[in-house]
Every structure is written in C-alpha cells, then in structure tokens.
Amino acid sequence: MSFTKPNVIFVLGGPGAGKGTQCTRIAETYGYVHLSAGDLLREEAAKPASTLGKEINEHIKNGSIVPVAITCKLLENAMNNSGKQNFLIDGFPRNKDNVDGWKKALDGKVNIQCVLFFDCDEKTCVARCLERGKASGRTDDNEESLKKRIVTYNESTRPVIQFYEKENLVKRIDASNDVDKINMQRPSNRYRVSHQYSHHHSPSHDDDDIDLSPTNSYSDEKEDFKQPTGYSPIEISNELESAIRNLRPSASQRKKAKANLNVSKQKADLPQLNLTNDENFNEQNSNKENSSQDQQSRRWFPNPDIGHVDSDAFIRHNHVECSQQPVESNDQINPPALLTAYPPAGISTRPTAVVAPAGPTRSISMFVASNSSIKTVNDTNPNTRLNSTDQQTITSSTSAFQPIANLRNLLNGKSTNKSAPLLMDIPQHKALVRGQQLTKVHISHPQSPSIVYLMLHEDFNTACRLLHEMAAHPDLQRDQSPTYAFKAQVNRLCACYHEGRWFRCRITQISPDFSSATVVYLDWGMTIPMQIGPEYIRRLPNEFYAEPTCSIMCHLDGVPNTNELIPADCLSECIALLSENEYDVTVNGYDSNSGGKVILSVNGRIINDQIRQLLIPNKSMSVDDELIEQFRHELPLTVGDELKALLSSFSGKDDSFYVLLVNEDTVIIDRAMSQLQETHFSNGYTSEAPRIKTLVVARYADDGKWYRAWIKSVCIQRQQATVFFVDFGNESTVMFEDISPCPESVRTLPWLGIRVRLLDETMSHDELAAFWKIAESNYIWIKILDILKDSYIIQIKIDYTLILRQERMQILEANQGVHVGVQTLSNDQSLPTIRPSNYSDANSIVMTPSFTDPCATGNDPLIRNLFEMISNELRRLRHRINDSDEASQDRHSQLMQLLFSSVNLNNSNNSKRL
Ligand SMILES: Nc1ncnc2c1ncn2[C@@H]1O[C@H](COP(=O)(O)OP(=O)(O)O)[C@@H](O)[C@H]1O
Ligand SMILES: O=c1ccn([C@@H]2O[C@H](COP(=O)(O)OP(=O)(O)O)[C@@H](O)[C@H]2O)c(=O)[nH]1
To answer: Which residues does CMP bind (predicted)?
Structure first.
C-alpha cells in the first residue's frame, strides 16, 4: 500500500443499524481510525465558537443532510490530524451530493477499499435509535426525527449504496443480529455474519457462518445483489488484514528499498523501480488519467502532477535570459556525500524556514499553464528531454495528510525522525522589508487563498538558471548512475527529478517502507511526494547549496485564513486571481518564521481585496460577535513590545480599555480619513443596508469625522447601524447615510485599537475615569507584559513631559533646575526614562522618574520622596470620584504645579510642604 494514499472504508446503513458499534470493534481489531461523520458534525456544532453550529443542528434534527463542504472538510481535517493511514468513515457519503463533494475534494488522493453496508430493517433501526435516545442526549433519536431520517436514508443513501455496488465496492453485512454475531472472528480470519435478512430481502438461509475466502469475485456478489435472496459471502477480513500488513513494509520491501540506495555500482540504464506490485499503485496510475477532470477541485490539494513543467516555454514567455550552456563542470570529483561533516565555507547551517507547511498545494503546471500559452516541448537538451516513460509515477500526495506537527518541528529545526541530523543548508531567501514595493513578482505556488510563494523577478531568473545548471550537472544525468549514493533522510536536501528537470528540494517525510518521500521544492514552494531512488532523488551537488532559496512564503494581508470551508467554485476563482503573470507587491510586514505579509495588485487592482470578497460572503452571516474576529487584523505584538499609544475608550464590559496605537499606520489612516472628510461619500449606504460584519467607514457623530468601523447590527426601519470603530474600540449608532465602504487604501491596515488591561490592577470605571483625566489627550507608552485571548496585559508609562505645559518646561529650563525625566518623546527617538517605582506599582499611576541629569542623582532621596507624594496625590485623585470634572482638572493642575514648584526649589523642605 502506498504511503501516499490513506485507505478509506466507507460504512453505510440505516440510522441505528449499528455502524458505530461495529466500527468501534473493527477499529480496535484492525487499527483503523474510526471517523463518524455524524459525531464530527455534532462535535463541530457543539463548539461555542462554531459559526456552523446552528445550520448543522437543524439538519441533524430534521434528519436532512448537512452540506457536503462542511462534512467533507471535517472528515478531511480529522484524517489530517490523526496522522494515520487507515480510516473507517462511518455514516458518509449519505447522498449523491456527498459522493460528488468527496470526489471533488479527495478523489485520487485516498484509496477507497470498500463500502461496508450494514443492512438492517427499519423497525429494528428505529427501535435501536429510540433505545439509544434514552441515554444519548441526541436531538434526533426521537420518533419525529427518525421518520425523517428513514426517509432520507431510503431516498438518498440507498442510491449511494447502489452506486457503490456498481463499482463493486459494497460488502453487505446483516446488521439485524446480535452485536457479537456481527463481528470479526479472530484469529480464524473469517468474518462471521449471519443471514437474517431485513424487510426488503427475504432470507434464504439463517445463521450460516460465511466463508470469507478472498476468492469471492465481483460477479458473484453482483448477482446476489440483483437477486437479493441472501447475503453474498463477505470478504473483508482479508482485506483488512492485508491493509494492516501493508502498514509496515515487508522485509522484502525493506530490502528492495535498501538495494535502491546502493546504486553506486549500477551502470547506465537504471532499472525502473518496481514499486508497483501494490494494487493501489496501479490504481494511482489510472487515477492520473482522470486527474484533469477534477483538476479544478484538487487545486488546493497536493497535485503532484507537476509533470508539465515546461520551464523553457515558461522562460521564453517571461523573457528571461538564461544560459542554455551547461555550466562548466568541475572535472575534479566532488567530495563524497559527507556534506554534514564538511559544509562548504560561507554556507549557513541553520535550517531554512522555507519548508512549506502541510496543507493544500498546487502544482507548478498550473503556474506554467497560466504563464505560458506556449506549451510545446522543444527541449534540445538530451538530458532534459521529456520522456513519457519518465513520468513521475506517484500521482497522489501525502501533503494534505501530513501531520502538521512534523513540519512544525522541522520549522523549529527539530527533526521528527530522531536519527535525522540537521544538515548543511541552503541560505534563506533574503528578508523582505516592510514598506518595500516590488514589481514583476511571480507567484511560484499559491498554497491557499491566503498563502502564496512569491518569486521576485531576480529570483525567477535564478530559479531558471538553477534548472539549467542542474540539468547539465554530471551527477544529475539520468542515464548514468549517480557518482554518489544518496541516503534519504528527513530534513536532508536533495535534487528531485520531474520530467526533465532537477529541482532543489528538502525531504520532509519518508514513508515507513522507505519507498517514497515528501519533498519541498525550495525554489518554488510546493510540497509533493517523490519516489525514493536514484532516478528521482539524488544528492544535491555542492554547487547548488550557495544560492539562497528563490521563493518566499507570504501571507496575503487582510485575507482570512483558509482553514475555513471554501466551496470549490470560490476556490477556483481565487486560483484565477493568483494566476496572473506578474504582480506588484507591497510588503506590509516580514517575519523570518512566518514569512512576508503582502498586498498583491495587478494594474492597481488589489488582489487581496478581491480574494477577501470571495471568501467572506461564504461565511455564515448569522449574528455572531466572534465572526469579525476571524478577519480582525492586528499588529503582531509580542510580550516586551513598547508602543506609543493614546487612551481611546473604555471597553464598557470590565476594567479593560482600548488604546489607539500610534505608529506609521496611524498616520496613513489619519491622512486617508482626512481626505475622506473633504470628499462627500456618494457611495454611502443609502439605498441598501450595509452588511453585518463588513469593514466600512462611519461618521462619528461627536466630531463629524469618518473612521474605520465594522457593522455590528443594522436596523432597517430606522436606517441605522451599530458600528464598532476598529481603531478606537468604541461603538456607536450611525445612520446608513453616514456609512460607506472602507476605502481600499486603508482596508488592510491593522486595526489600531487594542484592548488592554493593567496587571493585577482592577480599576473601577470611576477610577479609570480619573486615570483618564491624567493621561487623556497625551501619549502614553505601553509595554506588553502578557497576551490574553481577548486583551493585552500592559504596563503604562506616562510621558510626563507631555503632560507638562510648555511654559512650565520653559521655566524649568530657564531655572536650570533638576530635570525631571524630561527626555522628550516628540521626536520618537527613545523611550521615556520614567519607570515605575516598583513592580507592584507598575500599573497604578505611580511613576518614578529616572534622571538624565547626572547632578540630579545626588537628589535621589528628595526626588523619591517627592514622587511618593505625588503618587499619593494621584491616588487620592483617583478616589475623588464625586468631584466634578472641573474640580478634578483643577486638582490635577494643582498637582502639576506643586510638582514643578518643588522641583524648581530643589529643596527637601518644599517637598514636605506638599
Ligand atoms: N446488533 C445490535 N443489536 C442490538 N442493538 C444494537 C446492535 N448494534 C448496535 N446496537 C445498539 O443500537 C444503537 C444504535 O447503534 P449505533 O452503532 O449507534 O448505530 P448507528 O451506526 O446507526 O449510529 C446503539 O444504542 C447500540 O448499542
Ligand atoms: O455525512 C453525514 C453524516 C451525518 N449527517 C447528519 O447527522 C445525522 C446523524 O448521523 P449519524 O451517522 O451520527 O447517525 P445515524 O443516523 O447513522 O444514527 C444525520 O441524520 C444527518 O443529519 C450528515 O448530514 N452527513
């Protein structure tokens, strides 16, 4: 069984037929992973944050069938997350739509072993469900729901079983018997089922044990189904047994794999690796023929069929100058494959971050197809000539099923395989710089609607040059044995062959039987499976270590993550948007781990927005406060960050509040907004209501200005909407006419309002109000101490210099008194030197300045004393809640005056006077 294809057994039957019960047993006995579609749906619906819960629950209660996109995605995720290879999928596919949806998403990528049909009469089914309902708490185990479920089963699911019968996949099992009679009889290798037939079949013989010999043929079974007079012999145990056997490589397979490695003595004409003795393998090949049919739906999944790379046409089309001459090969024999021990000078040994995470991938061929109308194969280089027999023989990929943890480990430089060493590495692509504007950028691999691999123009030239140089390299001539044996190991770099081209790759996974590996194309971004063997994977010659990786992973800024369910038609539109020849790119951020954050545009058309538009309408629009969070867009903040901010609003819920971060984005937003003030919005929502959970700009009644906001709720009658201002954290009710779609220029900028709270400090609203009096309208510096799910824990540093009035400062300077923490912040050069007096006071308004003036240090006790007093005053101020605004303001300025008079006097007696 191929490593690359998970095995699936579908389990069907009426509600209560006992599918779940038997699956549990089969799973235990044969090591299959039992995935009940119904359970997965119930689990999803029970998640508090699930946006699909309502929809799912309604279907379950009505006995109708949940849309296939949902079920299929849940199944797929469960398969991916299990990291296993053999699955019993219980209760799916339930109708034609399910069959089609599954095909679209996964056909060719899994091996459907058979369909177990648990046949049980209606009465028994209903009785069992009602019995189960007493304890199960299921909303559908009642008579009313059951009636509907039975109808659905007869009308929709039975035809599915018939469909698979035609495919010769159905193994019918009488499920009306006792639990134990419907079971595997180990170790006799016989599947004992008895023959009590259900209502629609008349029993021909009762309680016979069935021989499960593997010789039962399709035609026999088919006959039986045509004349449903009894059960045909069921042969599943052998199948299951063989499935298990195939989980581990046989000794002979291991031997063979080993032999394949030992190629140094082999001469030209390498033997074609015969890995096809597995039945699935032939099936894979036959699947390949169909692959174009469902290409559309498979595109976000590993499509290993990158056999159409016509890089010459690609190069011609893109007018890239590329040396067709083989590079002068160094006659001197390269050092043997001991690269671990002797990395060439100047080559980084750190692991590259360009390891594609598990997930949907797309082939180069699509890129080529979209980039090149010329699809001729005119390669004159005999080394690269396409040869149909050289077709990459593995046609399905594991990458959709890779346990993501493995890749995470890889990214963290840890190998999943303990023995796999970290080897010499190719340097990472050079970092992108925030604000950078790039033109003529290619997408070498759109991994998902929100993640793409970008190739800058020069990268593209380099990648093409590498293809040519590798094709000409003496060690990479396919008609000759490689000079050096290559041992495939996880994390090892290698050269991988695809129809006339060798690519620089990294191995990320190796199949247990050592026959195939999953590799990442370092220069192009995709992850695909490769057969292991000298024809397909060889040692990467030393020359090819120096060039940094040619593509860089980037997230499309503002495009929601694609863990969501995306219908196939929407996906294909996304693909089309990501298949342009060239893009203009604005870099909004870069991080060496997560790659770039970019905005793509073509002729001024912003691709990010078009993709987002495609994705977001597909989300459930049910009122759910959390939804906007899915595409909320924050600066990536980390603990320890110190940021300039303005207090903006109370959260209204607790003692948390919002601050507005002040950075270059603020300036951009500010500028865009003030431009908007001048233009009258003609495209406001006057005729139609704005959609809930969309980003808009809204006019704030207090100042009549426009700000970015999202729509929380709408009242059509009153033509009003409640909006949440994303940069400030407050809500307000606004007339439709005062709402307009968000301008593109500021749509993807991070939301600047962040919710914060003070460490260990619970402030009442009144206290917060008092605090406001001190800090409002002035910049504060916040330091992130912790990051919670809904807020940041911060420490506040108040910039006293900004609180001080200008004339005070002048007096201060004129008198050349002690400079009290007067490092100004206005030039943004440095953080204020004011620090909290001690940690526990960090969040109160108690601040102790440190001093820039060396002469001030001599006055330390005085100053400390002074500030303690001020702190006390401020505390008192906090509690003088009942004061009118004026009174507290007055108090505040008094306090400041006191501060400065005392500092000016520079006298301890004065401080006592306070
Ligand atoms: N062969 C059987 N005889 C009697 N009761 C059974 C049998 N198989 C399952 N049950 C019971 O019937 C109910 C439905 O079984 P379950 O496996 O949950 O069905 P389904 O696969 O249709 O969801 C459960 O309460 C289970 O204990
Ligand atoms: O692929 C599936 C599996 C289940 N369901 C829904 O989940 C319910 C319960 O299914 P389950 O398989 O858990 O129970 P059964 O009906 O087999 O007892 C069904 O009636 C459907 O509404 C669905 O829509 N699609």
So the answer is: 98
Q: How confident is the model at residue 773 (pLDDT cuts 50, 70, 90)?
A: low
Q: What is the pLDDT of residue 104?
A: 86
Place of tokens 């235990």: 28
Q: Tell me, yes or no, whether 890 and 821 share the same domain.
A: yes
Please report whether residue 555 resides in a domain: no
Q: Given the CA of residue 90, which atom of ligand 1 is nearest to it?
A: 21
* Residue whose CA lies nearest to ligand 2 atom number 8: 60
- CATH number at 676 reads 2.30.30.140
Q: The tokens 């929709």 sit on which residue? A: 156
Q: Residue 688: which domain range?
A: 664-751
Q: Are residues 837 and 733 in the same domain?
A: no
Residue 65 CA to residue 298 CA, distance in Å, equals 23
Q: Which residue has the tokens 């809904």?
A: 790
445 near 463, Cβ under 8 Å? no
309 and 229 together in one domain? no
User: What number does the ligand 2 atom closest to the CA of 13 have?
Assistant: 17
Ligand 1 lining (C-beta closer than 6 Å): 15-21, 128, 131-132, 177-179, 182
How open is the CA angle 852-855-859, to the nearest 5 degrees?
Answer: 100
pLDDT at residue 159 tops 80: yes
Say if the ipTM goes beyond 0.90. Answer: yes
Average pLDDT along the chain? 63
How far does the centroid of ligand 2 lie from the alpha carbon of residue 127, in Å?
Answer: 17
Give every CB contact of residue 339 below 8 A, 6+ residues apart in sequence: 423, 424, 539, 542, 545
Position in ligand 2 atom list of the atom nearest CA 92: 1
b/e for 106-135, b at 16 or more Cβ within 10 A? bbbbbbbbbbbbbbbbbebbbebbeebbee
Q: Are 678 and 747 found together in one domain?
A: yes
Find the 60 Cα to ligand 2 centroid distance in Å: 6
> What CATH number does the domain containing 216 carry?
3.40.50.300
Q: Give the pLDDT of residue 605.
A: 87
User: Cβ(116)–Cβ(12) under 8 Å?
Assistant: yes
Residues 299 and 209 placed together within one structural domain of the fold: no
The pLDDT of residue 832 is above 50 = no
876 is an annotated ligand-binding site residue: no
Last residue of a domain, one of 517, 543, 569: 543
Residues 209 and 312 grouped into a single domain = no
- Cβ < 6 A, ligand 2 pocket: 15-16, 19, 36-38, 41, 59-60, 63-66, 71, 91-92, 94, 98, 140, 149
Could you tell me if residue 233 is inside a domain?
Answer: yes
DSSP 377-432: -----TTT---GGG-------SGGGS-HHHHHHHHTT--SSTTPPP---PPPPPPP
Q: Is 132 annotated as a binding residue?
A: yes
- Give residue 760's pLDDT: 55
**Annotated binding residue 258:** no
Can you give the three-state secondary structure of 71-88, one letter per residue? Answer: HHHHHHHHHHHHCCCEEE
- Sign of the dihedral through C-alpha 272, 273, 278, 282: negative
Last residue within a domain, chosen from 245, 280, 310? 245
Q: Which atom of ligand 1 is nearest to the CA of 136?
A: 25
Complete edge-to-edge strand list for the sheet that includes strand 527-531? 527-531, 516-521, 501-510, 493-498, 537-538
Q: Which residue has the higher pLDDT, 903 or 889?
A: 889
**Domains: count for the chain:** 4
For atom 16 of ligand 2, the residue with the nearest CA is 15
Where is pLDDT greater, at 466 or 903? 466
Q: Taking the CB of residue 755, how many other CB atoms lie within 10 A of it?
A: 17
Residue 193 backbone phi and psi in degrees, to 5: -130, 150
| Domain co-membership, 717 together with 822 | no
In a domain, 551, yes or no: no
pLDDT of residue 553 exceeding 90, the answer is yes
Alpha-carbon separation of residue 705 from 85, 580, 658, 739 (angstroms): 58, 38, 19, 11
Q: 124 with 179, same domain?
A: yes
In DSSP notation, 10-38 reads: EEEESTTSSHHHHHHHHHHHH-PEEEEHH
